[in-house]
Amino acid sequence: MKLELQGITKSFDGFVANDHIDLVVEPGQVHCLLGENGAGKSTLMNVLFGLYEPTEGRILIDGEPVVFKGPGDAMAAGIGMVHQHFMLIPVFTVAENVALGNEKTGVAGFLKLEETRKAIREISDRYGFDVDPDALVEDLPVGVQQRVEIIKALVRNANLLILDEPTAVLTPQETDELISIIGQLTAAGTSIIFISHKLREVKEVSDKITVIRRGKVVGTANPDAPVTELASLMVGRSVELSLGRTQAVPGEAKLQIRNLLVRHENGVPAVDHVSFDVHAGEILAVAGVQGNGQTELVEAIMGLREKATGSILLDGNELLGRSVKQIINAGVGYVPEDRSTDGLIGSFSIADNLVLNRYDRAPMSKGLALKPAKIAASAVEKVAEYDVRAGSAQSLISTLSGGNQQKVVLAREFSRPLELFIASQPTRGVDVGSIEFLHRRILAERDSGTPVIIVSTELDEVRELGDRIAVLFHGELMGIVPGNTSREVLGLMMAGTSAEEALAQVAAEPGEHTTEQRPTLPGGIA
Questions:
Q1: I need a surface site. Which of 16, 384, 435, 524 has the fewest CB within 10 A?
Q2: 427 with 396: CB under 8 angstroms?
Q3: Phi and psi for 472 in degrees, rounded to 5?
Q4: In this structure, are 224 and 282 located in the same domain?
Q5: Phi, psi of 66 (to 5 degrees)
Q6: Which residue intervals define the domain ABC transporter in the entry (predicted)?
Q7: Closest to 185 measured CA to CA, from 243, 127, 242
Q8: Nearest-CA neighbor of 468 among 484, 457, 448?
Q9: CA separation for the pair 134, 124 (Å, rounded)
Q10: What pairing do the DSSP bridges indicate for beta strands 160-164 and 79-82?
């Protein structure tokens, strides 16, 4: 199938999400759409899949114009889409999910699934998917669930497959398996549109790269293009991707977590008897596929989880059982994973958001009275220091880009002396240029002697920042390894293998396993 998008424009109440985009995908080609979060990639694909009707422009398949009134029309034309968040019903079997929307019934209205099961087995055998048609989806690993989504498209004879941020919830090994599957699909003639913001993956999988920025195509590139060139196209200026980080000089163990147990509302452990230390002047990066207890761990430290037992000592003082305000006043800085919901107040100004953690303390207030002049003057300084792009310090926080909002959060948390700094998903939804800035500020805090915990699902970020890396799987600590540990080892740990077993398994495999040349810190494996 040859796909052509000509002048596709999509507007929402005056906001132009896609601005006259032209795109050509050749048969059997992997065409990558590269761009930051919010660049308009997913909107464009929703137009192609019939979820949105274009404001302007047209779609051609094999030279013929087509109009899609809904996803059914797109699927009938041979287009399939695997969304970033899977469209599967957990309590249904694989066969029931694949048949959904195209059900065939027999006597008394009972589903006839044997034909679907046969199709699943044929596709699974052809591509080595190893998917059981009768398995419950909720029992399958995330990587296998993604294969089910691909099978759903292939059963409907998709000749072009849209993969929207397909590696967002995968381990490195599952990502490698997906790339292998993509190779098999394109060899059979299937065209692939691969949507991502990850430069390394895009270079590895693509035949051609189109870069979108602020709803417009700003350039095309071949996969051998330097990452600096691709990054510059994404953000519109040159970007320094290497931090040139210095060696950490860890001191005493400032944070000591012992036997921490955090339960979900249904009583199932979200964090399962975890113990570790964080030293002064080091960054402990917490890795794992999203949903494996990272959020609950951080929220327990911050006093946001009532059903937590064990011990959390900061400088010998127990934090467990204390209020959020008491923990903040103990010198804990916190960047939540969802800044818009938990980190900022959109209807407040930048200046007001910068004092949310100290509005009731000198010099920002006296007694019950705020000191507006002091708050405003401090905000002007922080806006300049953190290069927050805004009209003024009085601009509403809701008018800022994601990267500038995150700068405000960091500026607020770093505006006072800290005993511990925690950042959860510190660069989620942030452009490449802002990532560079935020990483340097976090490293500077480490170098000042503060113990730092970073939680990230981006493995490249974990390896870039972490002096040591802790990996969680289903709430259990698989181990703590040095920051220069290979992606292969970390991937195995993210899938539930202990650190010792993962290191032994990778060491026994033939070939080289690259590591960053950074020093091994004390306490390498826990």
A1: 384
A2: no
A3: -105, 140
A4: no
A5: -130, 155
A6: 3-239, 255-499
A7: 127
A8: 484
A9: 13
A10: parallel
What per-residue confidence (pLDDT) applies to 521?
Answer: 31
Where does the pLDDT of residue 448 fall: very low under 50, low under 70, confident under 90, or very high at 90 and above? very high
CB atoms within 10 A of CB 318: 10
pLDDT of residue 222: 93
Q: Supply the pLDDT for residue 253.
A: 97
Domain count, the chain: 2
Q: Which helix (H) or strand (E) holds 94?
A: helix 94-99
Contact 406, 426 (CB under 8 A): yes
Read off the pLDDT of residues 81-129 as tens digits, 9 standing for 90 and up.
988 778 899 999 999 999 988 777 665 566 778 889 999 999 988 888 8
Cβ burial of 474 (10 Å; 0-12, 13-18, 19+) is middle
Q: Which of these ranges, 32-46, 63-77, 479-493, has the smallest mean pLDDT?
A: 32-46
Handedness of CA 249, 254, 259, 265 (dihedral sign): negative
Query: Which domain covers residue 437, as residue numbers?
Result: 253-331+417-508
Enumerate residues 6+ apart whose C-beta is below 8 A from 161: 79, 80, 81, 82, 150, 153, 154, 185, 190, 191, 192, 193
- Non-local (6+) Cβ contacts of 221 within 8 A are 208, 209, 211, 229, 230, 233
What one-letter code names the amino acid at 107? V
Q: Rounded to an integer, what distance in angstroms lies between the CA atom of residue 98 and that of residue 114?
A: 12
What CA–CA distance (Å, rounded) separates 58 from 66? 8
Confirm whether 278 is domain-assigned. yes
Q: What is the CB neighbour count within 10 angstroms for residue 99?
A: 23
pLDDT one-digit tens code per residue, 351-382: 999 999 888 888 888 887 889 999 999 999 99
Measure the CA–CA gap between 1 and 485, rounded to whole angstroms.
Answer: 42
In the block, tokens 């000089």 appear at 249
- Straight-line distance from the first to the last Cα atom of the chain, in angstroms, rounded to the nearest whole number: 52
**β partners of residue 208:** 31
* Res 92: pLDDT: 94
Question: What integer pLDDT is reported at residue 360 of this predicted model?
Answer: 84
Q: Note whether 231 and 258 are same-domain residues.
A: no
